[in-house]
Amino acid sequence: MSKFKIYKKICLMLPESEETYPFGPENCVIKVNDKMFAILDEIEISLKCNPDLALDYREMYEGVKPGYHLNKKHWNTVVLESDVKRKAIVEMIIHSYKCVVGKMPKATREMLLTKLEDQMEFLK
């Protein structure tokens, strides 16, 4: 299975996530409650990130760059074939999801974060 398919599958495992293609068939956009948290293709994945953590990731890994065609303060683009290990990318995906959900109305936010926590407990 390609890294693209693996990371797309991981994104879609998160509560209420949906796959869309608003930019054409090459760019998969994963949304939660109609808000983007991941954009991926065969080469890279772009993820929302806390600004301070975004800078830390860019310093830690050669494969993490400022978000391509995105707000560079809040988004990172990760090259899939790089020095960034799968575990780190999965952590970045979950962080991106939480960043987006964190800006939603309280009831929606609490429901989605509870579902996420339940899912994470199940995976342990």
TrEMBL record:
Q: Name the Gene3D superfamilies for this protein.
A: 3.90.1150.30
One of the Pfam families matching this protein, by short name: YjbR
Which superkingdom heads the taxonomic lineage of this protein's source? Answer: Bacteria
Q: Which InterPro entries match?
A: YjbR, YjbR-like_sf, YjbR/MT2646/Rv2570-like
Q: Which PANTHER family match?
A: CYTOPLASMIC PROTEIN, CYTOPLASMIC PROTEIN-RELATED
The protein depicted here goes by the name MmcQ-like protein
